[in-house]
Amino acid sequence: MPTSPTEVLLSWSGGKDCLMTLQRLREDASWRVVGLLTTVNQHFQRIAMHGVRRDILQAQARALGLPLVVAELEWPSSNDAYEAAFAAALTEAQARWPGLRHIAFGDLFLEDVRAYRQKQLAQLGWEGIFPLWGEDTTALAHRFVAEGHLARLCCVDTQQLHGRFAGHAFDASLLASLPGSADPCGERGEFHTLSFGGPLFDRDLPLRQGESVTRDERFRYCDFLLDD
Prior knowledge:
The chain is 31% helix and 28% strand. With 228 residues, it is an alpha/beta fold.
């Protein structure tokens, strides 16, 4: 007798790696993704780190057909505040889906990040899963493009990559032009992406590129807006 799939929440930054994680989970009959969990900066109403507007986040969730759970983070903030907001969001998720105990991440190879997540989750009675862990990032990046997923670079760490890449489409030309020092998936924080279309979306989001700004004398953010 077949067993029911295990429910899992997906940590959602809005970028390509979590989108590929969603695809991998949906291809695996042992899992059923019930929702997305995203950390949002309350002051700016944007996804933390990526700087993507909240209305785009909400449009992503609708186009992917998944409900959204938000960890509300005050600004300025601290790691303790982040952990408290994350724990509160997990509690909210469990209230919506009783018995939920798993959350998936799109991490690829950073051992310290994975260990931190596992320690935090264990304290809360949760278990993390990492469907893309250990995959070749060059192959993964090229697969993303070949399969027709759409993304743009929304943030670039100018200490690792030239700021001119901010706003660039995540496509074959980008992958060909990245310096050898950069991971093709940006796993070391070289860049962050905004996914907006492709085979997992029921429609491509109508994005319009806005202004680009540099913050903290380091991070080059490219703003995107939804066209009406």
